[in-house]
């Protein structure tokens, strides 16, 4: 029987830049994801 490698807890683990959330700044007139999906659906009709 093999032993599974230990699992690091979140406190012991370093954060890497690629794991950080992506920040998106919307400007006036920009569409949200929901608005873009609605527009796409209407365009396909």
Structure in words:
This protein is an all-alpha fold. It has a domain of 27 residues. It is built from one helix and no strands. The longest helix is centred in the last third of the chain and has 12 residues. The termini are far apart. The model has no long low-confidence stretch (mean pLDDT 79).
Question: Which secondary-structure class do the elements indicate?
Answer: mainly alpha
| Global shape | elongated
Number of helices: 1
> What is the count of β-strands?
0
> How widely separated are the two ends?
58 Å
Which terms would index this structure?
elongated; 45 residues
List the helices and strands and how they pair.
Blueprint: H1 33-44
Region (Disordered): 1-21
Biased composition (Acidic residues): 8-21
Can you give me a brief rundown of this structure?
With 45 residues, the protein is an all-alpha fold. It is built from 1 helix and no strands.
């Amino acid at each position: 029987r093999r032993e599974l490698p230990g699992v690091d807890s979140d406190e012991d683990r370093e954060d890497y830049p690629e794991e950080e959330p992506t920040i998106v700044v919307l400007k006036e007139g920009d569409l949200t994801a929901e608005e873009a999906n609605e527009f796409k659906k209407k365009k396909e009709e």
